[in-house]
Structures are given as structure tokens and as C-alpha cells.
Amino acid sequence: MDKQIVERELMTIMRVTEAVAHEMHGARFDAYVSPSSGSRQLCAWQVTVAPGVDGQQHRVSHEEVFLVLSGAPTLVVDGSASTLAAGDVAFVPAGALLRLANDGPGDAALWVTTSVGLHAELPDGSTVRPPWTR
After folding, report:
1. How many CB atoms lie within 10 A of CB 71?
2. Which one of 2, 69, 71, 101 has the lowest number of neighbouring Cβ atoms within 10 Å?
3. Which CATH superfamily is domain 19-133 in?
């Protein structure tokens, strides 16, 4: 019987000091997992939204999962708003119109996971290709 060889990669640890920070639309994106860090399929980052920020509406190309780490952010998906709390998880389907806001008194932090290649279409028709997803 032939043995099937399975190629495996070693686990990679991303330290908080190694996250690559980006600023966009009033939020901070600390990228941990992306093709530039060795991932082939997934991207993951922490987004921090300051109080009073009403994020940019955009249509996402890929599914996204949001895990609230702290604060009380509001996620608006296809016109339906939900205020979330720490520990809540939201799934946003590909093609959805999305906006993330923070009406709370302190920062809101969320962990976001998606697929490599995510991009977003803005209301003016322009496309944003975040560097942490490629």
C-alpha cells in the first residue's frame, strides 16, 4: 500500500508586537494573519474603533466573522443594525452591505476573520483592497 505524503506547515505564532498596524476610515487594523505573514487561505486582524466613529459603508466580497473583544460596537448589515457586546459573534455574508460604528463611551475592539483576497466596494463605486488581506 502506498503511503500518501501530506505536506504540513509548522504552526506560526504571531506576537502582539509583530502585528502590522494600518489606519483607515477612523479605525485601527492590527493585521496578524495574511498572505504576507504566510497564510494561503485566511486573514485575521483586530480592528479597534474609537468612540464616536461611524464607519464607512462598504460591500464585502468575501464572508467575514466578527468576534467582539471589548466595547459595544454597532454592526449594520444590509440596513439592519445590531449593537454587540464582548463575546458576541457576527457572521457577514459575501455581498452584504456593511458598516461598523462605535457609539459607546470607550474603544470597541473586534477580531475579524475572512478569506484571502477580500476587497470592498465603497458607495462611490471605488474598490478598497486592504493590504492586510493580500
Report:
1. 21
2. 2
3. Jelly Rolls (2.60.120.10)
pLDDT digits (tens, 9 = 90+) for 63-87: 999 999 999 999 999 999 999 999 9
Contact 19, 32 (CB under 8 A): yes
Q: How far apart are CA 116 and CA 110, in angstroms?
A: 18
Type of residue found at 94: A
Q: Which of 14, 91, 103, 16 is nearest to 53 (CA)?
A: 103
All three cell numbers of 79: 440596513
Q: Quick check: 116 pLDDT over 60?
A: yes
Long-range contacts from 27-31, C-beta under 8 angstroms, 24+ separation: 27/53, 27/55, 27/100, 29/130, 29/132, 31/131, 31/132
- Res 13 pLDDT > 70: yes
Q: Which three cell numbers stand for residue 111?
A: 477580531
42 close to 113: Cβ distance less than 8 angstroms = yes
For residue 6, pLDDT over 80 is answered with no
Surface-to-core class of residue 114, CB atoms within 10 Å of its CB (0-12 exposed, 13-18 middle, 19+ buried): buried
Match 470597541 to its residue by C-alpha cell. Answer: 108
